[in-house]
């Protein structure tokens, strides 16, 4: 479990508002029942959306069994075992690394002059843009600026 950093106060009737971001991420709507869990030793209180005893995949209530923290019906288990209605996910193809040309070494005094000219012509450009124009890294542009 992770700490969300959100805190809410109880009102005078002992109610609390669940933040909208949490309700949205947990698919909790107005009127949805919630299940509460408590660990008396640590004082930890948690909750989740109550799903009842129905199949997690088709919501059937007949021939339901419990598997890995979820309820599944006999029909869905049979379909999963036989790969019925299962779409195949394509295997991702690894991309070949793009060949990057080696940057040629340029003397500092030439780069400084080129940077000075770029700054005159484009005073509002970002450091990344200067780096791209000069064919060097942003950190190299920073070093060159210090030498100006």
Task: Give a short overview.
This protein has 148 residues and is an alpha+beta fold. It has helices at 20-25, 74-81, 108-121, 127-134, 138-147; strands at residues 34-39, 44-49, 64-67, 70-73.
Helix-strand layout with pairing:
Layout: H1 20-25, E1 34-39, E2 44-49, E3 64-67, E4 70-73, H2 74-81, H3 108-121, H4 127-134, H5 138-147
Antiparallel strand pairs: 1-2, 3-4
Helix pairs in contact: 3-5, 4-5
How would you portray this structure in words?
By secondary structure, this protein is an alpha+beta fold. Among the domains are: about 20-50, no CATH class; about 110-145. The protein is about 30% helix and about 15% strand. The protein contains five helices and four strands; from the N terminus they run αββββαααα. The protein has helices at about 20-25, 75-80, 110-120, 125-135, 140-145, and strands at about 35-40, 45-50, 65, 70-75. The strands form two sheets. Strands 1-2 form a two-stranded antiparallel ribbon. Strand 3 and strand 4 (about 70-75) form a beta hairpin. Helix 3 (about 110-120) packs across helix 5 (about 140-145) and helix 4 packs across helix 5. The longest helix is centred in the C-terminal third of the chain and has 14 residues, at about 110-120. It is elongated, with a radius of gyration of 30 Å.
Overview features:
about 150 residues, alpha+beta, two-stranded antiparallel sheet, two-stranded antiparallel ribbon, about 15% strand
